[in-house]
Amino acid sequence: MSQLLIEKIDAILPQTQCKKCGFAGCRPYAEAIVEGGADINQCPPGGQQGIQKIAELLDIPAKPLNTMHGYPRSYQVVAWIDENLCIGCTFCIQSCPVDAIVGAAKQMHTVIADECTGCDLCVTPCPMDCISMIPVNQKVTDWACSSIDAVKKQTANKARSRYQFRQQRIAHEKRTDLKTHTKEFIQPPQTQMSPEVRKQAIITAALKRAAAIRPQTENKPDSIKNK
């Protein structure tokens, strides 16, 4: 597998991490293309322009977008949560590939619009149907200061970084949970005692043993006691 080629294809993809291509993210899709496990026309957010760029990179003919994976949008969208209906179930937070939704269990959630990639993966899991995808007007300053392609690239790079950070965080949490469960299985947690508490516990246990032995001694015949 050519890592350099994967990097180049991944750089072309829009980094929405929407899974519409049939893979877990843009990077896995790029790997599948290089391995021969996926076609170049499975990314709706990338549209025909993205297909053309990948075809030129691979020096193969371009082809129309496979609409079985969806249709490209002519405008940018972000998720929006109706906070009056949100019950704080956290399902949307768990499904967001770039950690663009914030909130806590049983508390209102909200979307960080500037970080949202418009993947819409948070819509289906919501039990309250309170998440909508709404159009976003690109800031005029963005278009004035740079070309459209440059803005798209900057947005994609930021989304890729957030996606990678989330993957690393999830992997770290899984490793931590595994270590904790393994330690509990091998050696159950013991209550930590201060020296004073431990000393008192030893004395108390000794007094209980003495109290249990005393009646047995007192009930023995005098001849045995005097031996």
UniProtKB/TrEMBL annotation:
Q: Ranges for the 4Fe-4S ferredoxin-type domain?
A: 77-106, 107-136
Question: Single GO molecular-function term?
Answer: electron transfer activity
Q: Where is the 4Fe-4S domain?
A: 1-60
For this protein, the record's NCBIfam families field holds: PRK05113.1, rnfB
Please give the superkingdom of this protein's source: Bacteria
The record ties this protein, via SUPFAM superfamilies, to:
4Fe-4S ferredoxins
Question: What name has this protein been given in UniProt?
Answer: Electron transport complex protein RnfB
Instruction: Name the PANTHER family on file.
Output: ION-TRANSLOCATING OXIDOREDUCTASE COMPLEX SUBUNIT B, OXIDOREDUCTASE
Instruction: Name the InterPro entries for this protein.
Output: 4Fe-4S_dom, 4Fe4S_Fe-S-bd, 4Fe4S_Fe_S_CS, Elect_transpt_cplx_RnfB/RsxB, RnfB_subfamily
* Keywords tagged on the record: 4Fe-4S, Cell inner membrane, Cell membrane, Electron transport, Iron, Iron-sulfur, Membrane, Metal-binding, Repeat, Translocase, Transport
Question: What species was this sequence derived from?
Answer: Nitrosomonas ureae
